[in-house]
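Please fill in the sequence for the structure shown.

STRUCTURE ENCODING:
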């Protein structure tokens, strides 16, 4: 495979330095972590999914230096004598199950899921007054390097983690964060911000997520900025039609997920997310995982074939048939990997 040589590599940089570049130039700085996080149980269903699963509707409350707030979360876990691993799923909808969250199948495989609807945290709109955004940015005013919406959704995923690690039924060493598309970008950002995650899983995250920006044949920074500039910080605009002058590229986001694992999933027909560039990111991040004493990205020296599943390393990848979607097939591959 021809690996482009014009892509900046974070050689000799610490994780903190890499993270700093990504926050300053792309995502913006996230709010500080809260002093206190706790959950209120709103409703419990003891016999969910044929009685195999417990489902709770929760409200996660936090007390931070910028204020007190809350957002709704769903928590489902299989009845088990042992501690179970957990997915924090940043979802598009609050539904359980949901077309992107086959809850029964996930629980049948021995996994718990804590999910929230990203819009219940703050709207997916170019404003900073909805949901918890208004606490973080009083009067909706934010500085150019403050985080955009991806950062706020990622912050909420970390609050789920804060609560999840306190739960006796959850194996706190095995909590992964997962998201699809814009929320796949968010999952990788959450993984970069929080070392407690076991694995950060990006499904079809594309531009601003797993896909290398240089030479991206799908969505460009220009495209994403036209509709979704508010996901990022203002510095990101410097790279509109100017990818070649980025001092970083998206594999830095994978590298900054060290020391934990990272999983990138692509779909064959999802050309907007540019599968070859999602794969390239994993290849470029490989060396840094190895340098950190991890197994890197174990892959063939060619583009993967559809249906290929690369689970040998601490960076994992698959590409499946079909379009932009978070499917049962994707979930099964994620769990296969985490079970290894
Ligand atoms: C749009 C956007 C992508 C994003 C996707 C999604 O297509 O351009 O960057 O990943 O929405 O979140 O579904």
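FILLED IN BY: designer on duty
SEQUENCE:
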């Amino acid at each position: 495979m021809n690996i482009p040589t014009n892509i900046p590599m974070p050689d000799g940089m610490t994780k903190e330095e890499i993270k700093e570049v990504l926050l300053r130039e792309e995502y913006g700085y996230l709010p500080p972590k809260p002093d206190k996080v706790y959950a209120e149980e709103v409703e419990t269903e003891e016999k969910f999914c044929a009685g195999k699963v417990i489902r709770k509707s929760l409200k996660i409350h936090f007390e931070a230096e910028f204020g007190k707030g809350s957002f709704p979360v769903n928590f489902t876990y299989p009845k088990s004598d042992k501690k179970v691993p957990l997915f924090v799923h940043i979802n598009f909808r609050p539904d359980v199950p949901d077309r992107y969250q086959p809850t029964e199948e996930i629980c049948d495989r021995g996994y718990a899921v804590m999910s929230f609807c990203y819009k219940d945290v703050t709207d997916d709109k170019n404003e900073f007054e909805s949901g918890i955004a208004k606490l973080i940015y009083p009067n909706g005013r934010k500085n150019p390097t403050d985080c955009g919406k991806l950062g706020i959704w990622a912050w909420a995923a970390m609050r789920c983690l804060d609560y999840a690690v306190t739960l006796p039924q959850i194996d706190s060493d095995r909590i992964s964060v997962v998201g699809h598309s814009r929320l796949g970008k968010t999952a990788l950002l959450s993984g970069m911000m929080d070392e407690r995650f076991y694995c950060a899983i990006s499904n079809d995250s594309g531009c601003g997520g797993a896909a290398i920006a240089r030479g991206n044949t799908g969505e460009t920074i220009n495209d994403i900025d036209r509709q979704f500039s508010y996901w990022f910080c203002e510095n990101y605009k410097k790279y509109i039609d100017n990818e070649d002058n980025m001092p970083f590229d998206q594999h830095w986001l994978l590298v900054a997920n060290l020391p934990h694992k990272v999983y990138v999933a692509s779909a064959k027909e999802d050309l907007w997310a540019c599968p070859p560039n999602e794969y390239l990111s994993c290849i470029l991040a490989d060396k840094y995982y190895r340098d950190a004493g991890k197994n890197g990205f174990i892959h063939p020296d060619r583009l993967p074939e559809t249906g290929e599943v690369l689970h040998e390393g601490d960076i994992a990848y698959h590409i499946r048939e079909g379009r932009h979607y978070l499917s049962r097939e994707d979930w099964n591959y994620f769990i296969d990997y985490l079970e290894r």
